[in-house]
Amino acid sequence: xxxxxxxxxxxxxxxxxxxxxxxxxxxxxxxxxxxxxxxxxxxxxxxxxxxxxxxxxxxxxxxxxxxxxxxxxxxxxxxxxxxxxxxxxxxxxxxxxxxxxxxxxxxxxxxxxxxxxxxxxxxxxxxxxxxxxxxxxxxxxxxxxxxxxxxxxxxxxxxxxxxxxxxxxxxxxxxxxxxxxxxxxxxxxxxxxxxxxxxxxxxxxxxxxxxxxxxxxxxxxxxxxxxxxxxxxxxxxxxxxxxxxxxxxxxxxxxxxxxxxxxxxxxxxxxxxxxxxxxxxxxxxxxxxxxxxxxxxxxxxxxxxxxxxxxxxxxxxxxxxxxxxxxxxxxxxxxxxxxxxxxxxxxxxxxxxxxxxxxxxxxxxxxxxxxxxxxxxxxxxxxxxxxxxxxxxxxxxxxxxxxxxxxxxxxxxxxxxxxxxxxxxxxxxxxxxxxxxxxxxxxxxxxxxxxxxxxxxxxxxxxxxxxxxxxxxxxxxxxxxxxxxxxxxxxxxxxxxxxxxxxxxxxxxxxxxxxxxxxxxxxxxxxxxxxxxxxxxxxxxxxxxxxxxxxxxxxxxxxxxxxxxxxxxxxxxxxxxxxxxxxxxxxxxxxxxxxxxxxxxxxxxxxxxxxxxxxxxxxxxxxxxxxxxxxxxxxxxxxxxxxxxxxxxxxxxxxxxxxxxxxxxxxxxxxxxxx
Length: 675
Hints:
With 675 residues, the chain is α+β, with helices and mostly antiparallel strands. It contains 15 helices and 32 strands. Strands 12, 13, 14, 15, 16, 17, 18 and 19 form an eight-stranded antiparallel β-sheet that branches. Helix 6 (332-342) packs antiparallel against helix 7 and helix 7 packs antiparallel against helix 8.
C-alpha cells in the first residue's frame, strides 16, 4: 500500500462557514466536484409510493449478480409491482401530450400513449412491464400540461399521488449516478486513481487489454481469476478504445498491453459537501474527511455497503450512514430511499437477519430525528408490517426470541448477527439483542405517535421486557449487564454499550456498565461507532478521540483513502476476509462513523428537537488547540468554532442552540467565553 500524503498545514482556526468548508476539503481525498452534471437530458418518471425504492434495490441486486463473484444477499427483499393503473388530469395546450412507459401502455407495443392537444380532462391508462421492474412512465407535455400530480389506485376507491423521480431516457430506478472522467497516472508499473473510486476503466491501446484492478496495489498485481472479487470483462468501444463491462471498485489498475492513455469513468453522487470538521490535529481532520468521502462513494442511488463484492444496501450500514450523513451531506432523500427499499420484506427478516429487523425500526426513528419530514403513510405501513412480524417472536416475558429463518447465514441461532465474531450459544437469550429490542420498541412507538397512532401496547411491552431483563440479565455484583439473560453469565461489551445507546442505562449512575465496554475493541467499525457514542454519553470524550486515532488512523497510516469493512488486526492480512485473499472491502459505508463522532465529541452536540431545530452544545477541547465544524442542518448550515476557551456559533433562522443552559436563537453569530 502507498504511503499517506504529506500532512497539511493546520495551525489556524478557519474564519466562517465557507473557510471551514474549504479547510475540510483540503483534508479530504475526494477528487470529485460537488455537483457533476447529469449524463443526459433529464426526464421526470412517476412511481407509486415505495416503488422507486423497490425498483432501485432490485436493479442493484441484478447488477451485483452480474459483477460479483461472491454474492450474498437475502432473497426475501420486496420486489416492485409490475402493473400500474394511473390517472392524469390534463389541460389543453395545442400540441399532443405523449406518455411513455417502461412497459406496454394499454397493450401498446411501442410503450407510448398519445393524447390530442385539444383534450381536457382525465386520462386513464395501465402500464405493464417485465418481471422485476416497477411500472413507471414519463410525460412529454408538449403544449399541454398536467393540472396535478398523477395518481394511482392502491386500494379500491383510494387514490394516492405518484412520486416524481429524475431520470433520463431510461427510467430513474435504472439510472446510475453521474460519471466523472478521471485520468489515471502511471505509478510503479500500475495506473493509479487519485483515490478509491467506483468506475469503468477505459484503455486506449491497439490491442485488447486484460484489466486487473485493486483497492490496493497487492490486489491489482496478484488477484487473478477466482481471486478477483468482481468480473473483469473487457469490451470494445465505438471510438476504438476498450472498456470494462462493469463498474469496479479500484484505486489501481494493471494492464498486459502498452496503453496510450487510461482513464476511469467514475460514478459519484452529485451532492454538495455541506458539512465539515477540522481541528489542530491533522490526523483527526483527515479522518473526518476520509469518513465523509467513504460515505459519498457508497452513495450509489441507495447507500450500499461497499464498493466491492455485493454493492447493495444493508440496514446496519444504513443506521451508521444516517449519523454520518447528518454531519457531512444532509442528503435526506438517499437516507429515506434506503430505509424504504429495505422495508416490507417478503417474509422473514430485513436482510435475512433478525436484529436487522430491529435496526430498521430504530433507523426509522433516527431518520426523523436528523431529517424530519411529514409522516409517510408508506413508511408507517412498512413499520407496522415489520413490527407485526417481530411481535410474533415475543415470549411470555416480553423478550424477543427469534427463530432461524432462511436468509443470510449468521452462524448464530435465531438468525442473529449483532456483529462479526459475536457468538451466541444454542439455547441462550442474547442480552445485546434484547437491548436492541427495547430500543426498537421505543423507536416504533415514536414513529407511530408522530403518525397519530396510539402506541400504549408497545410502551407496556417495553416496560415488561425491561423488568425481565433486570431480573435475568443484570449482575448486581458487577453493576453491569450479563452477556445472556440467564442469571449466571459474565458481562460483555455489546450488552452494555447497547444499553447506554438505547437509553436503558444511565452511564453516570451505573459506572459498571461503562467499565464493561470502555476498553473493548470491536472487529468492525459498525458497532464500534455505537460503542464510542455510548462512551461519549459517559463523558469520556478525549478517550473517544484516542480510540478514533487508534482504529481509523491505523488505516490512514496504511495508505487508505477510504475506510474499511473491518479494522486491521495484528498478525493478519489487512486485505483478506471470508477466507479469500482480497475479499475485505476497503470502502464500506458502516466505516463512516467518525463523521459524526468527531464533532459530537469536541462540541458536545445533542439533539433536543428533530432536525437541529433545538440542540445542545457543551464543548470540550479534548487536548486540541482549536476545532471547527459545519453541520448541514435542514434549516440551514450551522457553524461552530472553538479556540482559547471561546465558542463561536453561527446559527440560521429557526435554530436554537442551548449552550450550557443558555438558549441562543438564530439567525445570529455569537461568541461565548467558557468558564
